[in-house]
Amino acid sequence: MRMQKKLYDDGEHSTCLSETKIIALEAIDFSWGKRKGDFLWEQKYLDLLCYKEKYGNCDVPTKYRADTALGRWVSDQRKAYHEMKANKQSFMTHERVKKLQAAGFQWVASRRKG
Fold it and tell me: In terms of DSSP H, where are the helices of 10-111?
């Protein structure tokens, strides 16, 4: 069912889901689950919050030695945000922007090294 919802959300043909069925399922609090990309994004977001707790900011260096994947992820968020603002294809969503801004995320990297 989750795959059919993904197809529907992406504007592709779903063989078993219609807007009416989706509304009915959501009315009974049906859980669609998260897409793999959303789950991975949430995991890195939690890592960012841990970084903030430790250092007091979200300014993770791109080459952060303690967690190079987090440094790359932060850099990717900035790039995706700027792509979204330029009306280019981007994985950034308004919901993600709000979460990052609420955490104190800066869309332009500082010049310090990590």
Answer: 19-27, 36-55, 68-85, 94-102
